[in-house]
Amino acid sequence: MADLHDPEQLDVLKRAGEMVCRSAEGGQQQRL
Questions:
Q1: Is 0.85 surpassed by the pTM of this model?
Q2: How far apart are the C-alpha atoms of 14 and 21, rounded to whole Å?
Q3: What phi, psi does 5 have (nearest 5°)?
Q4: Phi/psi zone of residue 9: left (φ > 0), alpha (ψ -120 to 50 degrees), beta?
Q5: Coil, helix or strand for 31?
Q6: Tens of pLDDT along 1-32?
Q7: Cα Rg, the chain, nearest whole Å
């Protein structure tokens, strides 16, 4: 489990979430 109280962990989680969102949006755009 990631330590949510660790700023670095939070930053990594945020970046990972953004990458997932971008990849999902990119996949949808390619499908269209």
A1: no
A2: 11
A3: -90, -5
A4: alpha
A5: helix
A6: 556 678 888 899 899 989 888 888 777 776 66
A7: 13
